[in-house]
């Protein structure tokens, strides 16, 4: 798995596919990288279990809805990262932007457009999760491509249908899937190391972070 120098170079030539227009709802996430022992790690959060939260308990990147106070989706990703895990991205390096993704959750009549931004933070502060986050941790980027971490699993939202996921901790809790998995797919495609599992054609309702 390449290091940060290769990742930077790959994103310099990447033109993200953006979803234009004023959708009813927008959100943004931050894919935050740091170097540990010379190798990149990525920040994941386990969202807190909360009634009414469609992504309750999911593994995700820091992020959330774009608010009126946000001048851009990037600003929203930075604000949410500071609020959720206590890490300021104001002085961090913006490596690049991922393709926009669109999803729809059960009970919603309008779609949600999610933007993803890749940052490198040279010296992130200690993680301080707020009430929206149950757990936070850094995970080696190279481990995300290990075959023994790739599974097919039925989730609470999918009934008996199984979807691809990546185990990043407790197999019963810490499984990356949905939109977070899709963002990882795009990330690894950009850097030239595609993931083994592919989405194919999936219902929009299943593409949730």
Short description:
The protein is an alpha+beta fold.
Structure description:
The protein is of the alpha+beta class. The chain has a single domain (4-191), classed as Nucleoside Triphosphate Pyrophosphohydrolase. Helices cover 17% and strands 31% of the residues. The protein has three helices and eleven strands, in the order αββββαβββββββα. It has helices at 4-12, 73-85, 178-190, and strands spanning 25-36, 39-47, 59-60, 63-65, 93-97, 101-103, 112-120, 133-140, 150-154, 162-167, 175-176. Strands 1, 2, 3, 4, 5, 6, 7 and 8 form an eight-stranded mixed beta sheet that branches. The longest helix has 13 residues, at 73-85. It is globular, with a radius of gyration of 16 Å. It starts with a helix and ends in a 19-residue tail after the last helix. 35% of the residues are buried. Mean pLDDT is 87; it is low at 199-209.
CATH superfamily: Nucleoside Triphosphate Pyrophosphohydrolase
Radius of gyration: 16 Å
Gap from first CA to last CA: 24 Å
Under CATH, the topology can be stated as: Nucleoside Triphosphate Pyrophosphohydrolase
The helix fraction, in percent, is 10-25%
The structure class reads alpha+beta
Q: Strand content of the residues, in percent?
A: 25-35%
Task: Spell out the helices and strands N to C.
Answer: HEEEEHEEEEEEEH
Major sheet details: 8 strands, mixed
Spans of at least 5 consecutive residues whose pLDDT stays below 50 are 199-209
Average residue-wise pLDDT: 87
How many helix segments? 3
According to DSSP, the number of beta strands is: 11
The CATH class is Alpha Beta
- What's the CATH architecture? Alpha-Beta Complex
Q: What is the total number of structural domains?
A: 1
From the spread of the alpha carbons, the general shape counts as globular
């Amino acid at each position: 798995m390449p290091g940060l120098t290769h990742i930077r170079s790959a994103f310099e030539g990447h033109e993200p596919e953006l979803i234009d227009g004023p959708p009813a709802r927008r959100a943004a996430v931050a894919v935050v990288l740091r170097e540990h022992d010379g190798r990149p790690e990525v920040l994941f959060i386990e969202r807190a279990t909360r009634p009414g939260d469609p992504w309750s308990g999911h593994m995700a990147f820091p992020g959330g809805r774009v608010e009126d106070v946000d001048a851009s989706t990037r600003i929203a990703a930075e604000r949410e990262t500071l609020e959720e895990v206590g890490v300021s991205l104001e002085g961090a390096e913006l490596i690049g932007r991922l393709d926009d993704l669109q999803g729809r959750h059960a009970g919603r009549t309008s779609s949600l457009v999610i933007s993803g931004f890749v940052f490198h933070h040279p010296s992130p502060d200690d993680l301080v999760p707020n009430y929206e986050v149950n757990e936070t941790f850094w995970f080696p980027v190279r481990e995300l491509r290990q075959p023994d971490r790739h599974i097919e699993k039925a989730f609470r939202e999918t009934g008996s249908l199984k979807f691809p996921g990546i185990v990043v901790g407790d197999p019963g809790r810490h499984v990356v899937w949905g939109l977070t998995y899709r963002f990882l797919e795009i990330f690894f495609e950009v850097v030239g190391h595609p993931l083994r599992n592919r989405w194919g054609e999936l219902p929009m309702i299943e593409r949730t972070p």
